[in-house]
Amino acid sequence: MSVKITAVSKALPPYTRSTEEIMPFLDIWLSGQEDRFARKVKKIFENAAVDRRYSIMSPEEVFTNTSFEEKNDIYVREVIKLGSQCLVNALEKAGLEADALDYIITVSCTGIMIPSLDAYLINLLQLRQDIIRLPVTEMGCAAGISGMIYAKRFLEANPGKRAAVIAIESPTATFQLDDYSMPNIVSAAIFGDGAACAILSSHEDDSGPQLLGDGMYHFYEAEHLMGFKLTNTGLQMVLDVEVPNTIAAHFPAIIHPFLDSYGYRIEDIEHLIFHPGGKKIIQTVEELFGAMGKNIDDTKEVLRLYGNMSSATVLYVLERFMDRGVPAGEKGLMLSFGPGFSAQRILLQW
Asked: How far is residue 199 CA from its own chain's centroid?
């Protein structure tokens, strides 16, 4: 059964600032800290390879000492708006009505809401009352591809159906005002907020790149590398400095057996749709792929324009390929990493 991606669309939050415009807020936040430390923090922001970030909150709100409850209330309110917007945009791109969806997967790890986002979207857009729901949480940056893998498996088992995968994240809602640790600072420097939706289909008449294969790769003894710790002030970032080195060490095992299982080699892959985790991870993967004659220019450009939006970001990279068009027959490899530690992969053919 052939499963295809028929459309991908993004939605951006209302607030945005360039890195240069954020510096005055950093000055206020860092007042009272040692000058050497303050200069180091500002250098991290300047060298993060992120020119602009979007947020569900104004900078004033981000740098205000509000409670976890207050920040999460903003998260709930705004992700409903963004989820509706990116799903409507994707349906329009695909030429579909809301009642064409049989399956809805919502992905997020940066806030807490019960009922989950999908329930609100069913009511707002009047999706079918028999639609199948799957909220995916706690998978971090890898979850955008994870949601697509779950959609693919559902559609393979159900010919003539369609699924929407909606990934929405607000890392700025997790910023800890009283935490001057490197994980909190680095995450603030590289992350931004955003939403994206991909529509997948097992309808014979629908067009788009075909998902030839998918897979997950789980690292042993690596739970400490990435994630969130739930504290009284909210979700506190866990981000180990060994993430890039760990990726590099496992890279051959992540890529080559996966492609080989579908009868391909890296030489057969024309396009790399890689999640921009951050500058160091991009440099690590660029060195590894560069040795194979590949580039991740679109990944770098998405990081520059928006920052790392956790699970949604890889869909921003995919949208660039979808919108500009890819010659028929060419193949792409989607790749992202997330808490666990794990790697998620999808093999595409246009």
From this structure: 16
CA separation for the pair 285, 255 (Å, rounded): 11
CA–centroid distance for 210 within its chain: 21
Name the amino acid, one letter, at 106: T
**Is 141 considered catalytic here?**
yes
Domain 4-201 belongs in CATH node 3.30.365.10: no
Two domains, one topology: 4-201 and 210-349: yes
CA angle 297, 301, 304 (to 5 degrees): 140
Which tokens in the block code for residue 315? 């869909």
Number of residues that make up the chain: 350
Average pLDDT, rounded, for the chain: 93
> Among positive and negative, which fits the CA dihedral 85, 89, 90, 91?
positive
Residue ranges of the alpha helices (H) in the chain?
19-29, 35-46, 59-62, 68-94, 117-124, 143-157, 182-190, 243-261, 279-290, 297-306, 313-324
pLDDT tens for each residue of 104-135: 999 999 999 999 999 999 999 999 999 999 99
CB contact at 8 A, 198 and 165: yes
For 231-275, the pLDDT digits (tens) are: 888 888 888 888 888 888 888 899 999 999 999 998 899 999 999
Q: CATH class for domain 210-349?
A: alpha beta
The C-alpha atoms of residue 303 and residue 279 are separated, in whole angstroms, by: 8
258: nearest Cα among 346, 175, 197? 346
**Residue 306 amino acid letter:** Y
Which is nearest to 335 in space by CA: 240, 261, 260, 251? 251
Percent of the chain with pLDDT over 90: 75
Q: Of 86, 109, 141, 197, which residue is the catalytic one?
A: 141
Position 291 pLDDT exceeds 90: no
200-213 burial: b if 16+ Cβ within 10 Å, else e: bbbbeebebbebbb
- Distance of alpha carbon 287 from its chain centroid, rounded? 22
Which phi and psi (to 5°) does residue 86 adopt?
Answer: -75, -30
